[in-house]
Amino acid sequence: VAVGSRGRDELDLRESTAGPARIVSVAGELDLASSPRLSALLDRLCSERAALVLDLTGCTFIDSTGLAAILHGARPLVSFSVVCGDGVPGELLRMTAIDQTIPVYAAVDEALTATGPA
Amino acid sequence: MTDNEHSSRGHFAAIVESSDDAILSWDRKTTITTWNPAAERLYGYRAAEAIGKPISILIPPHRAGEEQRILERVFSGERVDHLETERVTMGGRTVDVSLTIAPIREPDGEIGGASVIARDITERQRARERAERLQQVTVELAGALRPERTVEVLLENALPALGADAGAVGLVDADSEQLELVGSVGYSDSVAQFERMPLDADLPMTEAVRTGEALWLAGGAELRARYPNLTDHPDRWASLAIVPLVAGGAPFGAVALSFRETREFLRDERAFMLATAAQAAHALERSRLFASERRRREQLDFVVEASEVLASSLDVDETLERLAFLAVPRIGDWCAIDLAGDNGGTRNVAVAHADPDRLALADELRTRYPPDPSSPRGAPNVIRTGRPELFSTIGDELIVEAAVDGEHLRLIRELGMASAMVVPLTARGRTLGAMTLVAAESGHHYTREDLELAQELARHAALAVDNATLYGREHEAAVTLQRALLPASLPSPKGTDVAASYLPAGPGLEIGGDWYDLVETDAGQVAVVVGDVAGRGLAAATIMGRLRTAFRGYMLEGSRPAAAVERLDALMGDFDEASMVTLVHLSLDPVKRRVEYVRAGHPPPLIRDPGGGVRELNGEGSPPLGVLRDPIFRSSSLELEPGSLLLLYTDGLIERPAESIAAGLARLRGALADAPESAEGCVQRVVEQLGAEALPDDIAVVALRFLGV
Fold first, then answer.
1. ipTM field
2. pLDDT, tens digit, for every residue of B482-521?
3. How far apart are CA B541 and CA B480, in angstroms?
4. Sign of CA dihedral B505, B507, B509, B515
5. Chain A partners within 8 Å of B621 (Cβ)
6. Is B664's Cβ below 8 Å from some Cβ in A?
7. pTM, two decimal places
8. Which of these, A105, B127, B161, B403, is most buried using a 10 Å CB contact count?
């Protein structure tokens, strides 16, 4: 349960649409201070029943509350996948074995192709 | 001489006689030969007194050389037109004149003297001077940002322009409803009695401010009839001119000019005064806006700085002490802070004084004479009502009335109390206490603006206090809970050497949800868990408590590791509050020298071989608990040689800002490789080496060294 390195909200969230799928791009630090915003966004998207791709490429830090926000948010979704590179988010997803439960891709295109016809 | 000539001369003489211009003549020797009635009015000499005298009697000494130049021109046959110069009267007064001088030719053609037409241009000259002065005032005031300078410029210029003997400027003090003299020249010491005039006083300056109209009082009798208050005043002025200073349609002060002589005020003089006063009023308004803007900026900076200072402590008494020292001397010479106590009483928590030597005095006053809880004013009343009180001016009579006894009175008088304000400390609708600010030595009189600043400061302080109180309660409860939930001491199962440590997050931070536990089952197995509940504070600590208790039960029952973790995940599904847990759980069979473990969303435990090599036990990774619908938890196992050491920990030990998990793990591996042999030594070493630079997060560490049986 770590607080972000600076203990304040350093998160940038962006939403976009690709066919039937919604893409949420997360940049900055996803921690105790900022994860409630991601939770709120995922809650809202749940009701849209869209396939969701969570792009963590720009994310520099995730703590356990951030991880909890992702997992709790993903649970009710029909289709959920994560995109991340070699940085901290990818490491964390592997370490926590979440990559064995949730599909993880290296690029948004890959995730969209795997999710279904765009 | 013909009749015609006679008649013409008579006609001419009549014109000269009745002219408004002074007309005179002088002969070859510059002796005055003719002198009309206008010349008498201008110069004071009667015809009989002037005729036969040299023209030089009219020339002031500093213009003596002028006569010669005029003579030279006249005797060379030239006219001198509209020469503006000065002449002196019989009474010695200097008058400004415009002269037209023409040579008089004798019948033989010789120049035998000159005729002079003199026009009094004193008033014209004055008017021109006033116009120049007005221009100068405008220029000087344009650069004046300090109100003192504006008042100076106004008086410096208005007095000579109207020939006044004394002058003063008064400005309205909105809080006390008084007109305060901010500058005066030429008055005797008795002007002191007018230093602060109540706005409703029956005086010329206050009337001008009330009505916004200028007053031109030409005679002493008129003046005293209209203002009986001035009758016995030692400066018996004959005439007064009072012009209000107006900004945005509202009079906020007045300039007064006093004259010893009875005099009328010419239209031109009035216009000058009105214009000058308008210029000064603009300048004063500008300085006021400038000063208030600067003050607002300074105050904003102060409040921002203060709120940072206040928010940096989570201790109530310390916060209030900081508040008292922030307020002094910035907004008070001394300050006392009282908190609401039991039964409507108050509890003094802080006193500060600008003068350290007098702090004891202020302290003594507050402790020996605490405010009467039933008092209709002061801290008890402000705490009761939540409304601030402002005492702009505190007279001695009020102090005498408020004093409980002679000693109390002595203390208050010694400390001084010229002005005071009491503001509530209110947070979330509740008044926690009150701050009393007193101006003494500074002689400052608090205004509405001061009160606003004090209230702003009090609001920030109250929030800080409220936070500190809340934090104090929650922090205490969470720490108590967590301490109570962690094992007071670990068992020492046969064939093992165990040690554990829990480090709460740094001071000022909420408690986390890390836990560890170690049990020895009836079957002789050693079960260990290190877990981490996502989140903070009482909520996380409470969840941790429930999980720990449940998991301890599963371990004691001898559940296989994967089964125990699965049961815990199922239990979490029943919780009202969504949460997430990561953990490492292992079970050691000392006889079989075998370890079975589950790593659920958690950083890998480390193993140090008897040879000193350190590796990560990644095994079959499992997901965190409490977040997935049907998670599968897999266990891994390994053989354990005697002398091997297992290290379990929470992520606080390895996470660093802007660093990969791999780097954090590498550092921990290094620390463990170099750590002492014993479990206790290892725990101490890794905590020392990695805990110091950790993020503000809590950390749990458990070391288990297998000795063999």
1. 0.81
2. 666 677 778 888 889 999 988 876 554 556 788 999 999 8
3. 10
4. positive
5. 94-97, 100
6. no
7. 0.47
8. B161
